[in-house]
Amino acid sequence: MSLKEAAEKFQKFCSIYKEEADCFSPLFELKWPDGFRCPHCDHRQFYLIPTRRIPLYECRACHTQTSLIAGTIMERSRTPLHRWFQAIYLHAQPRCINARQLSEAINVTYKTAWLICHKIRRAMSLRESNRLLSGIVRVSDTIYCKRLTPSFDWHQQEQPLLVGASDSNNGVLSPIVIKLQSKAPLKDKYDCPDTAPFIREHVNPADVKNTIVTRRYGRDMNKKLAWMGYDVTWWIARVFLGIGPKHLQAYLNQFCYYYNRSRSTLYIQLLADCLHSPAITYPELTKPTANGRSSRLLRSARNPSQQTG
Q: Transposase zinc-ribbon domain spans which residues (predicted)?
């Protein structure tokens, strides 16, 4: 799809969701697909309180009040719902989007766009966190941001990864799981991370015996898995202009989220996952690290020239 066609599709989407009220009905249907359920007592009847910016729903049995965005990544957000819809739509497109681009596309500040991006990325990460690979499972090591040098020493930007995938009958490796590994126990960049913890965490216990581990080089190399490091490096570089190791796992989760789902229904899936992911606040995302210094996320949020993510 060309940039012009993508822009036209986005404008058409914006014409459908051009104000908050346009979002109420789809939010209700996704939040309560079988009809309203009180979060406190599970009662099905409610009173509608339409006087708020976003309507409240009061349970007729216990009188608990809830809203469409309670318990979602949008909870307590001052950003209008149609801006959230636009942001989620853009995150579901093949080209993806970074915070700087999102800021311009939906007309919000960089800080707001940055926070929206990280909240959406967190919803993706939570959705991927419980994934178990099954059937015939293939596992390989690979490298993020691999440098083509003869040195055995790790380059600062190189990061060891383990990637696992279920091998279907037609040779398609899907779904996949990619996890960042520590350099500390590795002798050099040709050493392989310990695959046992990865297998315990991400492979169905009944299929551990069907797990095949290969290296990123050698006669038995699985090229699709071994070269996954190049694929994710290229994607992160193209969209976000590179990511350091501190927050790399969140972007790996985002890559897997896209890889493991059909693009034709990705927007609806992502919107539903955002509705079923709890909110995280700006202070929680930017809280100081153990040494008392602000994290790189905080610095990038304050200074958009340092990062586009």
A: 19-65
